[in-house]
Amino acid sequence: MCRTALPKNNRFETLEFFSTMAAFVPVAFFLVLFGQILVDGISGLSWDFLTQNPLDAGRQGGIASIVLSTAYILGICLIITIPFGLMLAIYLTLNENNTNGSLLFLRRSIMVLAGMPSIVVGLFGNAFFSISLGLGFSILSGGLTLACMVLPFFILVSEQALRSVPKHYYINAYALGLNQSSTLFKIALPLAIPGIGAALILSIGRALAETAALIFTAGYVTRTPESVLDSGRALSVHIFDLAMNVPGGNQNAFSTALVLIIFLILLSIATRFLGKSLVNRVGVV
Amino acid sequence: MSLQMLREKIFQTLLKISAILCGGIVIFIALFIALESIPFFRSTPIYRLITDQSWHPTEQLFNLAPMLWGSIYAVSLAILIAVPIGILVAIYIQFYAQSLIQSLVLQIVQILSGVPSVVFGLWGLVVLSPLIAQISGPGTSLLAGGIMLSIIVLPLIVIITNAQIEQFEEDYIKSALALGMSRQSIIIRVILPGISSGLYAGISLQIGRALGETMVVLMVCGNVVQAPLNPFEPVRALTANIALEMAYALGDHRSALFVSGLLLLLLVSAISMAQTKNRTIAYV
Amino acid sequence: MRIYSTLLISWTLISSLSACGPSSKPELPSSETTRITVTGSSTIAPLAAELAKKFETEHPEFRIDVQTGGSSRGISDVRSSIAHIGMVSRALYESESDLNHHLIARDGVTIIAHGKNPVKNLSRQQIIDIYTGKIRNWSMVGGDDKPVTVVHKAEGRSTLEVFLAYTKLKNTQIKADSIIGDNQQGLKLVANNPNAIAYVSIGAAEYDAAHGLSIKLIDLDGIEASTQNVRNGRFPITRDLNFVTKGNPSEATQRFLEFAVREYNQNIVEGLGFVAADAP
Fold first, then answer.
1. Domain for residue C4, yes or no?
2. Domain that holds residue C166
3. DSSP states of chain C
């Protein structure tokens, strides 16, 4: 997968020197960042931290209710994202070579949505879901807003997975007289499942990392949510609030960040199992 | 047979409906934000967005220009730092690293690309800003924002460049080798020019991404409305402005924030619309 | 072309959905538990949250949601019936006389600096000069030879309005080095920056200073910044903390309002560093 096929010579190369130096930058930063999070975060991490609710604005206690709110928000986001995203991925795969105006428009729209700044989606979510639809600051508003952000990403990666099914499978199926939907459901989808699983996990990672859009939609309340109409604070928002607004909150901010990062790394390991080739192609966490 | 045809029909219709809905979301979001901006345009002539004395919405002053400059300065700084380093790291991974180190560096870059920006912001606020404050100024500054943004963008630049080099035609390299070119000159003279168009696309999408990044600039930039040329001075980015004032804004003020959201949307969309190649890779 | 027209139709559908949104006024969900929504000032929010917690334990059939968003949001949410109670950390303006206000506590706004800063006292004029950029170094007000980091609040916060009213400055005249959101952010920033100056709620500052945060409350024209001096009216920057309601509040809201000002809850008010409403 890498090109080391170029001849090696023992002569000193300026480029080699500079590129080696440059490679230290991400590695060093990685060590500094994770070292800091680990050192500052691990002391606050305990079973109690995971099972207790936050107290005293998050300085004391744990993150149990925050984890629960995060799970609810994520759940709502995925309920919307998975069916819609799969449909769209299938639609785009079927029309892969179609270049008429509406298809082009659809692809462009997905691109624009994928690149839309999260704060803009947050503005929309606040104005539309929270105010116009009257959902208020709630887990539901947050989940729906998040779905708008994650959907295009899920579509793009699942489409890649579907496309990686070799073309001759389709041709053979067509020759055997299978129609489009049977070909997809019986042949292409089962083959693409690992890739779609990877797409799903990558989308979860995206959703968990999102902060800005949730501040105006899911709100700040730290209480254990009782329904999806309750406001709930996500993990990322909790980190933000502890870091910015709570004197003496750094300790728990780092502990929460550590929990989030450990979870994200576990997800990325899972992705690697699911779709190595796909991950290499799109190159994500 | 007819049942099967019906099923096929239903399936096709479902696909169409979801396609229409999905295509509609973008337009809907854009229109909704435009709709929320209308009250502002009704009460205030548009040129005041750049001619007003400053941004003091409660005193009916709505100059967005300093924040636009704030965003542009921070993003330029980030790109200036991240692009050369990112390309060099990718070259290192592809050509110079031994295989064990190669996969290690790539792994690290991939993990960094998935770190939530709020975690970078936390680090920038707690570690980087106090360091900068020891040199000059309040610490939370344009420089802090530029550095943190460059760290967000760097892994993606590496991944994009890496993927581009991987896709580069083997034949050109072979021909160059046959001509007796050295490794370094093949990389500089053959490969880099060959992948430049893909790189431009990828980089410009990262510019869009950095422009839209909120948490980091909100946490480490100091949020003072001004457009300083001294990197140790604080600035406020467009995105940070929305995040900072949205919860408190009412009436024209709120509407003005939607105007800045619309501006941001147009900027970023224009950048992404201009790019059709290498899109999946670039969006990751 | 066909797809375009269908797109258009779908959009019309979605937008009509949104258009019918506002008419279905955000109804506050009514089940066995009665919900009271409280929004507004971030200064009052911790107090409201504590009161709410106690109220909920005494009356489990109620649930009280406290959301912050600033005094003006409290006013507008109550007007549009999004919230039952608004929190407003200043006296009501004349244009707001359509609402009922219930004084729940009083508070001062104090100037704070880092705990190691040797400056103990500032005059009103010195504060004006610092915030307008005339004084840029702590040595000019008797401190160390260090540049002043001026911390100011973002637009829309009532602490900002109270501060401007006291200094008689316009927001446009102020030259800040850092802009913050709520009190806690200001306290945190000052504790981390030895050169910073900020203004925050006395209640919040006293509470955090007592809990080991490295900040210092600066005396104003020789008057010590303390809840004591807010209580006896000597401290120059004071303000009312109000709950506001519209029309005839529901029975549930009424009960919570009465609960909030009840005498035995004064220890909650004082515990957070505020001054009880009925104090002399």
1. no
2. 107-231
3. -HHHHHHHHHHHHHHHHHHHHHHS--PPP-SSSEEEEEEE-TTTHHHHHHHHHHHHHH-TTEEEEEEE--HHHHHHHHHTTS-SEEEESSPPPGGGTTEEEEEEEEEEEEEEEETT----EE-HHHHHHHHTTS--BGGGGTS-S-B-EEEEEPTT-HHHHHHHHHHT--GGG---SEEESSHHHHHHHHHH-TTEEEEEEHHHHHHHHHTT-SEEEEEETTB--SHHHHHTT-SSSEEEEEEEEESS--HHHHHHHHHHT-GGGHHHHHHTT-EETT--
